[in-house]
Amino acid sequence: MTDTSITTKTGRLPWAGLFALAVAGFVTVLTQTIPARLLPQISSGLDVPQATGQLVIVYAAGPMLAAIPLTALAQRWPRRPAADVTTASYEKGRAS
User: Fold this and answer.
1) Own/partner pairs, 25-33, CB within 8 angstroms, 24+ separation
2) What is the pLDDT along the chain (96 residues), one digit of tens a residue?
3) CA distance 16 to 93
4) Of all helices (H) and strands (E), which one includes residue 85?
5) How many helices (H) and strands (E) in the chain?
6) DSSP secondary structure code for residue 3 in this structure
């Protein structure tokens, strides 16, 4: 049977890694939700109807709908390749 605890060999939690993960999650959510608050200013600056900005909300729903199936799928992968694939696809998405 494998050990699924997150404690290290010394029996302590890896606080630095957990903090880095929390900051990364916060920044990711922040970059998806800030445009929703700025929709009126963005739409007036681009001379488009405010309803056009609702596409931002549809865009933000994508990760929400994909999170659970992708998490279930990634549980079967070794952690290092899963992290590499996740990072590479995130960077590719941000570059396009």
Assistant:
1) 32/59, 32/60, 32/63, 33/60
2) 555 555 557 778 788 888 888 888 888 888 777 777 777 787 788 887 777 667 766 776 787 788 888 888 878 889 888 889 889 988 988 886
3) 27
4) helix 79-95
5) 4, 0
6) -
